[in-house]
Amino acid sequence: MQYRFNILTFLLLSVLAMASCSRKTAPAGSETGSGKFRREKGKASYYADKFDGRKTASGEIFRQNKLTAAHRTLPFGTMVTVKNLANGKTVTVRVNDRGPFVSGRIIDLSRAAANAIDIVKQGVASVEISYR
């Protein structure tokens, strides 16, 4: 009986030791240990009205009146602040789709988000995005 107790104790301590040595890594776009914002500059566009009501890559239904966006790599649910470099206006959106798939563009915005930073008329604008 003592032998089994020693084996179980050894196994438990081994598991605890290995677990304490593992390192958790944060996915891209999540809060880092320093809590600093990551930034990207590029072009933003917005979705055409024909996508309203369709499923996004996350499985959510796309709505033009919501503050959402598409990004190629950020995890779904990441909150991103988008700043229009021409006028300084900002909007915070939630990533719920993949895209844009046009060279040079870093984010696709819903119409509501595009309205908030005044890019609907020109369709594409230079922006800086920031996220944790």
User: Which CATH top level class fits?
Assistant: Mainly Beta
**What is the assigned CATH homologous superfamily?**
RlpA-like domain
Q: Topology as H/E string? A: HEEEEEHE
CATH architecture: Beta Barrel
Shape: elongated
Uncertain regions spanning at least 5 consecutive residues: 21-33
Work out the helicity level: 10-25%
CATH topology: the name is Barwin-like endoglucanases
Q: Kindly, what is the distance between the CA atoms of the first and last residues, rounded to a whole number of angstroms?
A: 53 Å
Q: Going across the biggest sheet, name each strand in turn.
A: 1-5-2-4-3-6
Extended strand count: 6
Membrane topology: Lipid-anchor
GO biological process, one term: peptidoglycan metabolic process
Protein name: Probable endolytic peptidoglycan transglycosylase RlpA
Organism: Filimonas effusa
Topology (elements, then pairings):
Blueprint: H1 2-21, E1 38-46, E2 68-70, E3 79-84, E4 90-97, E5 105-109, H2 111-116, E6 124-131
Parallel strand pairs: 1-5, 2-4
Antiparallel strand pairs: 1-6, 2-5, 3-4, 3-6
Keywords: Cell membrane, Cell wall biogenesis/degradation, Lipoprotein, Lyase, Membrane, Palmitate, Signal
Family: Belongs to the RlpA family.
Function: Lytic transglycosylase with a strong preference for naked glycan strands that lack stem peptides.
How would you summarize what this structure contains?
With 132 residues, the protein is an alpha/beta fold. The chain has a single domain (2-131), classed as Beta Barrel (Barwin-like endoglucanases), CATH 2.40.40.10. The chain is 20% helix and 30% strand.
